[in-house]
Amino acid sequence: MLIAHLPAGYLFTKYIQKTTGYKKYTWLGILGSVLPDLDLIYFYYFSDRSVSHHEYLTHMPVFWGVLMFYTVAFIHLLVRNKRAYFAVAIFYANIFLHMLLDSYTGTIKWFYPVFYVDLNLITVPATYDFWMWSFVFHWSFLAELFILTLFMIFIKNRASHVQ
After folding, report:
1. Residue-range domain boundaries for the chain
2. How far apart are CA 42 and CA 3, in angstroms?
3. Predicted confidence (pLDDT) at residue 158 exceeds the cutoff of 90
4. What is the 3-state secondary structure (H, E, C) of the chain?
5. CA-closest candidate to residue 53, choices 135, 109, 115
6. Per residue in 94-132, pLDDT tens?
7. How many CB atoms lie within 10 A of CB 127?
8. Average pLDDT of span 57-84
């Protein structure tokens, strides 16, 4: 995914908020939806780009699963607040949504470290010199445009209700 992580995270967070009744923590959902791609800073500025950034720790479900376990344990032992549990659920659900979306055309090691297998739904062939064009001009990019369109419709409807 190139452009749909943030819009998908926002829509997903709003859906969770609507179904649970909690109206806070939208910013945590948005942060979680883009946080795994923070590794792009290292990828572009410090690495030799010989390995996909999906190979980095921030794109490993086991990494986020362990962090989530310790976060929930910390909250359970020290905080014991329903809102804190909800905030953690929003944050980590969006992180896993990010990796699920990356599994659409990219590869994620969902079963690492048990199995070192790349899983994805669609393989986009490298048909252009610049890698991004191979994704943008592939039919699978329509899913990203669909998510972006839903996001824009949602925002427009919210703006019209405010006025």
Report:
1. 5-162
2. 19
3. no
4. CCCCHHHHHHHHHHHHHHHHCCCCCHHHHHHHHHHHHHHHHHHHHCCCCCCCHHHCHHHCHHHHHHHHHHHHHHHHHHHCCHHHHHHHHHHHHHHHHHHHHHHHHCCECCCCCCCCCCECCCCCCCCCCCHHHHHHCCCCHHHHHHHHHHHHHHHHHHHHHHC
5. 109
6. 999 999 999 999 999 999 999 999 999 999 999 999 999
7. 11
8. 96
| Residue found by looking up tokens 């590869």 in the block | 107
Backbone angles phi, psi at 96, to 5 degrees: -70, -30
Contact 29, 9 (CB under 8 A): yes
CB-count exposure of residue 69 (10 Å: 0-12, 13-18, 19+): exposed
Token couple for 163 = 């006025």
